[in-house]
Amino acid sequence: MPPPQVLLDTDTLSVYMRREAVVVGHIEDYLEAYSQFNLSIMTRYEVLRGLKAKRAAAKIRSFDRLCLANTILPLTDEIVERAADVYADLYRRGELISAGGHYQQ
Predict the structure, then answer these.
(1) I need a surface site. Which of 32, 59, 64, 70 has the fewest CB within 10 A?
(2) What is the pLDDT of residues 61-87, one digit of tens each?
(3) How far is CA 57 from the centre of its chain?
């Protein structure tokens, strides 16, 4: 049974791009099942801004190729509404998750 389809977050994609073995293995298993992974336009922005800030031209080219080979999902109002609902629910339960490497309060 293949793993469920997922949306890679910025942290996971960054670790994958650093070729850390555990994450690479999971993503390769996923790619065997689906041939492409999904990332949001926000993840593309977050990774790209970091690479540009470092002036990492070779990594930017590599990242651009990775983006072209996979699915980048747009940010829509429906997605924003759903994300806000998830955030509010987690906030009320005191279970916020990392947002861009920082815990929101």
Answers:
(1) 32
(2) 999 999 999 999 999 999 899 989 998
(3) 20
